[in-house]
Amino acid sequence: MATGFSDTLNALYEGNSPRAHRFRYAILTFDLITICFVVCTSFLAPAMWIERLDLVFGVLILIDFSARVYTADRRMWYLTRPSTLADIAALISFLAPLAGEGLGFLRILRTLRLLHTYQLMNRLRHDFVVFRKHEDVIVALINLLVFIFVTTGLIYALEHNDNPAIRNYADALYFTITTLTTTGFGDITLEGTKGRMVSIAVMFFGVTLFLRLAQVLFRPAKVRFDCATCGLFLHDADAIHCKHCGETVRIGTDGLY
């Protein structure tokens, strides 16, 4: 019985069946709903209905987390992974909000890992033409948005109790964007050495991800062009032959590569 249950969970979390893909889409949707809930409730005063929804989300995350641990081949290794630790932090914040208020945003780290799995990426290519045509741009944009969101959440969690300039996610997001773009209006600042280090990290990593997005938008390392012979769809920007089958490819360029 236990073996059958374990096989079912493994099939759902790691399999390639239509049922498994629907299940992972459902998890992705739940993760995004969780993130929206965390952001929206940061603008509201504490209330009983928020605490009850916290508990509901916490129980669902606990069920998902328990299933993942149960099906893991190397459980101790799994429990020390960054994405697992992020899930634990989110779980604590929902089940015991006073002990970890506002940490639910860390769940988006698991969402990012889910988006980068081979099975889901293949499914997204199959299900959505737009994703297939613009995969590099979409992935680079998702990486940048996740960085902005996680950084905003961290700044909010660290500062909203002590910094009167950061009262909600909108204030934290405003600081993150102005710091990332090096605009720095100066109306919101993080105090002390810790705050300066956070600001430096936002600028350093954020600008790197922003430049990566600009690169895939304007000067991609690979271009998408379906080879009529073998179907290979990623080629060097200046390629004249398909590396897989040798067929001549005529990739349109602006002459600047």
From TrEMBL:
How is it placed in the membrane, per its record? Multi-pass membrane protein
Which GO cellular component does the record give, naming just one? membrane
Query: Does this entry carry the keyword Transport?
Result: yes
Q: Where in the cell is it found?
A: Membrane
Transmembrane as a keyword of this entry, yes or no, is yes
Q: What is its main location?
A: membrane
Ranges for domain Ion transport: 23-210
Show the InterPro entries listed in the entry. Answer: Ion_trans_dom (IPR005821), K_chnl_Slo-like (IPR047871), Volt_channel_dom_sf (IPR027359)
State which residue ranges cross the membrane.
Answer: 25-49, 55-72, 84-106, 137-158, 196-214
**What domain of life?**
Bacteria
Q: What are the alphabetically sorted keywords of the record?
A: Ion channel, Ion transport, Membrane, Potassium, Potassium channel, Potassium transport, Transmembrane, Transmembrane helix, Transport
What terms describe the molecular function in GO for this protein? potassium channel activity
Kindly provide the name given to this protein in its UniProt entry: Voltage-gated potassium channel
